[in-house]
């Protein structure tokens, strides 16, 4: 609002402390806060009243149309993409009894089959890796047992 930084606020606070005094400073800040709150409330009420008046007179519909026109003029590619998105949304509503709907259902079924096959292959791979790891662990344990037995025999 006033674009006051921390340094400016600190200077205002020190000057207020010197001019008003430490005893009356909290009372003054409370009153300033109440005044600012009332001013914000009045501004909010004024803005609300102006918006209501604009709604009643139909100005808002005109400004909405103008905003769309300005958007289209300033960003034609974005507006064209909005049109493409709207058209794509209408294409997703497919009649299940049409040829396209049947093809879509078949493709969805194929996707599920592919996902199931991929999951099964991953599970098989993990099981194979687990058995290989178990065999490796058993070999290492056997080697360890042999070396411990040989150490006992040497001593």
Describe the structure in brief.
The protein has 155 residues and is an all-alpha fold. Helices cover 88% and strands 0% of the residues. The protein is flat and about 100 Å long.
H/E series, N to C?
Answer: HHHHH
In round numbers, the mean pLDDT is: 84
Total count of strands = 0
Total of DSSP H or I helical runs spanning 4+ residues: 5
Radius of gyration, in angstroms, nearest whole number: 38 Å
Termini separation (Å)? 90 Å
Largest sheet: none
Shape: flat
Helix coverage percent? over 70%
Classify the secondary structure makeup into a structural class. Answer: mainly alpha
Explain what the structure shows.
The protein has 5 helices and no strands. It has helices spanning 6-20, 25-57, 59-74, 76-91, 99-154. It is an all-alpha fold. The radius of gyration is 38 Å and the shape is flat. The longest helix is centred in the last third of the chain and has 56 residues, at 99-154. Helix 3 packs across helix 4.
Fold topology:
Blueprint: H1 6-20, H2 25-57, H3 59-74, H4 76-91, H5 99-154
What keyword list fits this structure?
single chain, 155 residues, mainly alpha, 88% helix, 0% strand, flat
